[in-house]
Amino acid sequence: MKTVDAPRDFAMPEGFGAAHDGTPRTRHVLERDLLIERCAAPPLLPWREAVLWGEVDLLSAPALRDEFEEQLAEGARWVVLDCEHVDFFDASGVREFARVDEALKAIGGRLQVCHPSPQIKKVLGITGFGWLVVPRSQ
């Protein structure tokens, strides 16, 4: 996995680009059409936040798995994914979400998906994984 700065033409919404404490996020290019923006977190904290951009499919799923495994190895127990900017999501993504959720549950944690794109919400609902989605606060 290669760490890179976002391309010049990569437009991020206002408010993205820094962790809650102002620490910059690290951007990882995972595969052709998927970018994960990982929020920097102090090593002793058990949660991780990340933003997915692009497509989660058969080609990008192995790299997404590698990212999840890295987060688990770093001590993550809760992983929150902002998926508002995911344009395509198929069964490969469902498999990786289910896999990491099982690993997190085994150590008392959980995967949560917030701001799901319509594509993610539909696929997770159809496959019975809609419970991973955290409802938007009013």
List the secondary-structure elements in sequence, H or E.
EEEEHEHEH
* Main sheet properties: 6 strands, mixed
List how many beta strands DSSP finds: 6
CATH topology call: Transcription Regulator spoIIAA
> How widely separated are the two ends?
37 Å
* Highest CATH level, the class: Alpha Beta
Q: Give the overall average pLDDT.
A: 79
Q: Count the helices. How many?
A: 3
Unreliable spans: 1-21
Overall morphology: globular
Kindly report the spatial arrangement of strands forming the biggest sheet.
1-2-3-4-5-6
Estimated helix fraction = 25-40%
Going by CATH, what is the homologous superfamily? STAS domain
Percentage beta strand: 25-35%
- Number of domain units: 1
Rounded to the nearest angstrom, the radius of gyration is 14 Å
CATH architecture: 2-Layer Sandwich
Q: Which secondary-structure class do the elements indicate?
A: alpha/beta
Structure commentary:
- With 138 residues, the chain is of the alpha/beta class.
- It has one domain (29-132): STAS domain (Transcription Regulator spoIIAA, 2-Layer Sandwich), CATH 3.30.750.
- The chain is built from three helices and six strands; from the N terminus they run ββββαβαβα.
- It has helices spanning 61-73, 91-106, 118-126, and strands at residues 2-3, 26-31, 34-38, 47-56, 78-89, 110-114.
- The protein has a six-stranded mixed β-sheet with strand order 1-2-3-4-5-6.
- Helix 1 runs parallel beside helix 2 (91-106).
- It starts with a strand and ends in a 12-residue tail after the last helix.
